[in-house]
Design a protein that fits this description.
By secondary structure, this protein is mainly alpha-helical. It is built from nine helices and no strands.
Length: 205
């Protein structure tokens, strides 16, 4: 990849990362309730899943998107159910904006990472995006390991910047919610966003 194509690739992935979807909604809902720091492992899980799709596209595993449809269906349903469960937890979250999110612990961070990974992995159309997307920036017939590594690194940086940027923005919005009623509305709005994201995910073909 040339410098120009690398920069274009980085910017395109950044825009792709902040495009509204289940992952962005999950980040938004988590940050609204628990702050931006609680979103770090969630965003990382989503990003690693995307990178695996990117690598799969680079090495010619596009057949996964068509021949493993049943596996993707199971993953999508599991991810959707988990999103709905998280939405229910947010709906009933304690009325305390200053509470420390449990996901900052090692075990909570791992759970959050898996959650993010499932959210992204449950969307097989991501690999289709990369399959259509990559030829614009690199010659797939002359692809080598350094190109794949560079693309993966740029994807990691771009997606983490985009997702954590959304988290920071949403977390700042929390400061406007001071009363018990406003916190309850915040929790229920965030929970509703998460449930809606899960319902959207499970309804996709």
């Amino acid at each position: 990849m040339t410098l120009e194509s690398s920069l274009s690739f980085f910017l395109a992935v950044l825009v792709f990362g902040v495009t509204p979807g289940p992952g962005v909604f999950a980040i938004l809902a988590r940050a609204l309730v628990s702050g931006s720091r609680s979103c770090l492992f969630l965003a990382l899980g989503m990003t690693i899943s995307d990178i695996l799709y990117l690598i799969a596209a680079c090495i010619g595993l596009a057949a996964l998107a068509t021949h493993w449809g049943e596996v993707f269906t199971v993953i999508r349903v599991v991810g959707a159910v988990y999103l709905i469960y998280l939405g229910w937890k947010m709906w009933n979250a304690p009325l305390d904006l200053d509470s420390v999110d449990s996901d900052s612990s090692t075990s909570g961070g791992l759970l959050s990472f898996v959650q993010g990974f499932l959210i992204s992995a449950s969307n097989p159309k991501v690999i289709l995006f990369y399959i259509a997307f990559l030829p614009t920036f690199m010659d797939l017939n002359a692809l080598d390991s350094s190109d794949v590594a560079l693309a993966a690194f740029l994807t990691l940086i771009a997606l983490m910047i985009g997702l954590m940027g959304i988290a920071v923005f949403a977390a700042k919005a929390r400061k406007f919610f001071k009363s018990e009623l406003s916190v309850k509305r915040l929790n229920r709005s965030a929970g509703s966003i998460m449930v809606a994201a899960g319902a959207y995910l499970v309804s996709r073909n």
